[in-house]
């Protein structure tokens, strides 16, 4: 299926590892021009070696002022993938202010800020665009020790719908992908315990966690004109978890 991404300019946050890195690699292979945003310079350096021609931007998206300086003049962007995220796991009674602030700043506020920059540019140019927010199955199901993470992703799902509502008249589509556990460095760190992993796997009809490419394929579909009538959706990539 031809996705028609050749020559489009895409911005991907959280580009250094996992889903973000896989998305950059896939967009680069599809002929898109990619701006790769990460807070880790070493990850960007290795990504540039793998994907010559991409534009690296090193910034901590949890810092509003630094993000404005880094991306405020990023130039025309057609496609945006808001993938940067943190998962700080704590029992509810031990949740800290720092975990709340960091999680909401990166998982939600940064999505608002970067999307405002990109959508504002699209509207000023009078061209259509597409935004994909990387959410989680945890937006729709309670998971032990994930009270802050689940809350940020629940908020992200609703933000996706409101963005779709307000940006639709400008021909900007906004969707989310909602993966199950993905075997990224972050996923492996949080789900390496076999007993903990089994409790989740037992609730997934396909009986396995997702690989990065499963999520990347969904993201590319939602960025492409092949999903031209789809906006405001939250697409599960969860092996059936949300059906149970």
From TrEMBL:
<keyword id="KW-0007">Acetylation</keyword>
<dbReference type="GO" id="GO:0016020">
    <property type="term" value="C:membrane"/>
</dbReference>
<dbReference type="GO" id="GO:0005997">
    <property type="term" value="P:xylulose metabolic process"/>
</dbReference>
<dbReference type="GO" id="GO:0005829">
    <property type="term" value="C:cytosol"/>
</dbReference>
<dbReference type="GO" id="GO:0042802">
    <property type="term" value="F:identical protein binding"/>
</dbReference>
<keyword id="KW-0521">NADP</keyword>
<dbReference type="GO" id="GO:0016655">
    <property type="term" value="F:oxidoreductase activity, acting on NAD(P)H, quinone or similar compound as acceptor"/>
</dbReference>
<dbReference type="Pfam" id="PF13561">
    <property type="entry name" value="adh_short_C2"/>
</dbReference>
<keyword id="KW-0472">Membrane</keyword>
<comment type="function">
    <text>Catalyzes the NADPH-dependent reduction of several pentoses, tetroses, trioses, alpha-dicarbonyl compounds and L-xylulose. Participates in the uronate cycle of glucose metabolism. May play a role in the water absorption and cellular osmoregulation in the proximal renal tubules by producing xylitol, an osmolyte, thereby preventing osmolytic stress from occurring in the renal tubules.</text>
</comment>
<keyword id="KW-0560">Oxidoreductase</keyword>
<comment type="similarity">
    <text>Belongs to the short-chain dehydrogenases/reductases (SDR) family.</text>
</comment>
<keyword id="KW-0119">Carbohydrate metabolism</keyword>
<dbReference type="GO" id="GO:0042732">
    <property type="term" value="P:D-xylose metabolic process"/>
</dbReference>
<dbReference type="GO" id="GO:0006739">
    <property type="term" value="P:NADP+ metabolic process"/>
</dbReference>
<protein>
    <recommendedName>
        <fullName>L-xylulose reductase</fullName>
        <ecNumber>1.1.1.10</ecNumber>
    </recommendedName>
</protein>
<dbReference type="InterPro" id="IPR051737">
    <property type="entry name" value="L-xylulose/Carbonyl_redctase"/>
</dbReference>
<keyword id="KW-0488">Methylation</keyword>
<keyword id="KW-0859">Xylose metabolism</keyword>
<dbReference type="InterPro" id="IPR036291">
    <property type="entry name" value="NAD(P)-bd_dom_sf"/>
</dbReference>
<dbReference type="GO" id="GO:2000379">
    <property type="term" value="P:positive regulation of reactive oxygen species metabolic process"/>
</dbReference>
<dbReference type="InterPro" id="IPR002347">
    <property type="entry name" value="SDR_fam"/>
</dbReference>
<dbReference type="GO" id="GO:0005902">
    <property type="term" value="C:microvillus"/>
</dbReference>
<dbReference type="GO" id="GO:0005903">
    <property type="term" value="C:brush border"/>
</dbReference>
<dbReference type="GO" id="GO:0005881">
    <property type="term" value="C:cytoplasmic microtubule"/>
</dbReference>
<dbReference type="GO" id="GO:0006006">
    <property type="term" value="P:glucose metabolic process"/>
</dbReference>
<comment type="subunit">
    <text>Homotetramer.</text>
</comment>
<dbReference type="InterPro" id="IPR020904">
    <property type="entry name" value="Sc_DH/Rdtase_CS"/>
</dbReference>
<keyword id="KW-0313">Glucose metabolism</keyword>
<dbReference type="GO" id="GO:0019640">
    <property type="term" value="P:D-glucuronate catabolic process to D-xylulose 5-phosphate"/>
</dbReference>
<dbReference type="GO" id="GO:0004090">
    <property type="term" value="F:carbonyl reductase (NADPH) activity"/>
</dbReference>
<dbReference type="GO" id="GO:0050038">
    <property type="term" value="F:L-xylulose reductase (NADPH) activity"/>
</dbReference>
């Amino acid at each position: 299926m031809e996705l028609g991404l050749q020559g489009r300019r895409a911005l991907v946050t959280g580009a250094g590892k996992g889903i973000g890195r896989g998305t950059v690699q896939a967009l680069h292979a599809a002929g898109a021009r990619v701006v790769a945003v990460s807070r880790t310079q070493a990850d960007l350096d290795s990504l540039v070696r793998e994907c010559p021609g991409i534009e690296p931007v090193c910034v901590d998206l949890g810092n509003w002022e630094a993000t404005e300086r880094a991306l405020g003049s990023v130039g025309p962007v057609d496609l945006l993938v808001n993938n940067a995220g943190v998962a700080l796991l704590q029992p509810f009674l031990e949740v800290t202010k720092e975990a709340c602030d960091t999680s909401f700043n990166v998982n939600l506020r940064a999505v608002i800020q970067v999307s405002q920059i990109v959508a504002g540019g699209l509207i000023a140019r009078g061209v259509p665009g597409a935004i994909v927010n990387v959410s989680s199955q945890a937006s729709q199901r309670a998971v032990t020790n994930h009270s802050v993470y689940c809350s940020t992703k629940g908020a992200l799902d609703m933000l996706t719908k409101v963005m779709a509502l307000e940006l639709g008249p400008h021909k900007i589509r906004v969707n989310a992908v909602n993966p199950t556990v993905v075997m990224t460095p972050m996923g492996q760190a949080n789900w390496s315990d076999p007993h903990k992993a089994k409790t989740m796997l037992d609730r997934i009809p396909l009986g396995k966690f997702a690989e990065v490419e499963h999520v990347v394929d969904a993201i590319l579909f939602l960025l492409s004109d092949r999903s031209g009538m789809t906006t405001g959706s939250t697409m599960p990539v969860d092996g059936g978890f949300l059906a149970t």
